[in-house]
Amino acid sequence: MRVTHPTDRPNFSEVHTNRGIVGFSYETPIAFSTPATGWTVRKNDWGPTTGKHLNYYPTPHNERLTGSEFLRALENAGLS
């Protein structure tokens, strides 16, 4: 496992595991990717900083999941 900061900001990080990648805004998971799913991103329930972090990922706004849908998908992917 390794942690990276794609934009060199400490409040935006990605955790890379053997199962996939999970993107975090602060301490909240906001996106994940596995070989089977590609990127899955949740809707912005917060403010502009997390919105910038969400926009880093190549998922159109109309394909983003609600918080509960995202957490279920994250768990189903084995990344929670």
Structural class of the helices, strands and pairings?
A: alpha+beta
What is the β-strand count?
Answer: 5
Q: Which outline best applies?
A: globular
Spans where pLDDT lies below 50 across 5 or more residues:
none
Average pLDDT, rounded to a whole number, is 95
Please tally the helical runs, counting DSSP H or I stretches of 4 or more residues. 2
Tell me the helix content.
10-25%
Features:
globular, 2 helices, 80 residues, five-stranded antiparallel sheet, single chain, alpha+beta
How is this structure best described in words?
The protein is of the alpha+beta class. The chain has 2 helices and 5 strands; from the N terminus they run E-E-E-E-E-H-H. The chain has a 5-stranded antiparallel sheet, with helices on both faces. A hairpin with a 2-residue loop joins strand 3 and strand 4. The radius of gyration is 11 Å and the shape is globular. It starts with a strand and ends with a helix. The model has no long low-confidence stretch (mean pLDDT 95).
Topology at a glance:
Layout: E1 2-4, E2 12-16, E3 21-25, E4 28-34, E5 38-41, H1 48-55, H2 67-76
Antiparallel strand pairs: 1-2, 2-3, 3-4, 4-5
Compact summary:
The protein is α+β, with helices and mostly antiparallel strands and 80 residues long. The protein is 22% helix and 30% strand. It has a 5-stranded antiparallel β-sheet with strand order 1-2-3-4-5, sandwiched between helices.
